[in-house]
Design brief:
This protein is mostly helical. The chain folds into 2 domains: 44 residues, Arc Repressor Mutant, subunit A (Orthogonal Bundle); 145 residues, Tetracycline Repressor, domain 2 (Orthogonal Bundle). Helix content is 75%, strand content 0%. The chain has 11 helices and no strands. The longest helix is centred in the first third of the chain and has 30 residues. The relative contact order is 0.11. About 4% of the residues have low confidence.
């Protein structure tokens, strides 16, 4: 007979795998049927879990959708990337951020999620709000924090770090992102991502470097 404490430990260990099963089923059904047409019952059935288990992990379909976007961003961008980890070299730090951002943005899952939101947000504005809050807003906050750090270190002179972050992220996307989003380009190499990230970072640093700074 298994002791109660051992049973609790087993449940704790099993919980993340059930969470992943639920998210995988939801992702598949959202892409196949659309967000609005996918019910929590269908997600539970697709994940092979009970409705009680589903609601124990996610209180609503919107909460489930937000968690999927958040975890995708954490996996690719990092949840708590500190400015010190990126260093005080603006070209190298921003190139690293750009590389991570594009690597996340151009994955098939990320492109499919954005297409899904665009298709349904007019009828379901809360879906667009949830997507923005869980993904783009978090990325913007991360880049803004790093630019502010570079300002304080005397390596950049951006009067409005949030606006500067917005401009940097827009530079990164460019034509490459639009072509991938429209399905006109289906493969992007690591070299392409590196080149786009470095060129965008170089242009940004040239625009915001303090007078007399070489980089």
């Amino acid at each position: 007979m298994t002791a109660p404490n051992a049973q609790n430990r087993q449940k704790t260990k099993a919980s993340p795998s059930k969470r992943a099963l639920i998210q995988d089923a939801a992702r598949r059904l959202f892409m196949e049927q659309g967000y609005a047409a996918t019910s929590m019952d269908a997600i539970a059935a697709g994940a092979g879990v009970s409705k009680a288990t589903l609601y124990a992990h996610f209180k609503s379909k919107q909460a489930l959708f937000e968690s999927m976007i958040q975890e995708r961003c954490r996996a690719n961008m990092g949840e708590n990337v500190l400015p010190a980890q990126l260093g005080d070299d603006p070209l190298e730090g921003l190139t690293a951020l750009g590389r991570q951002f594009l690597g996340m943005l151009l994955t098939p899952d990320a492109l499919a999620a954005f297409r899904l939101v665009l298709a349904e947000t007019q009828r379901l504005p809360e879906l667009g709000e949830a997507f923005y809050r869980s993904g783009p807003a978090r990325t913007m906050e991360l880049v803004t924090t790093y630019i502010d750090h570079l300002n304080q270190a005397g390596r950049l002179k951006a009067a409005d770090p949030a606006l500067a972050a917005d401009l940097f992220l827009a530079q990164l996307k460019g034509k490459l992102y639009l072509k991938c989003l429209l399905g006109l380009q289906t493969e992007v190499s690591a070299q392409d991502i590196e080149r786009h990230a470095r060129v965008a970072a170089s242009a940004f640093v040239l625009s915001f470097a303090p007078p007399g700074l070489n980089k």
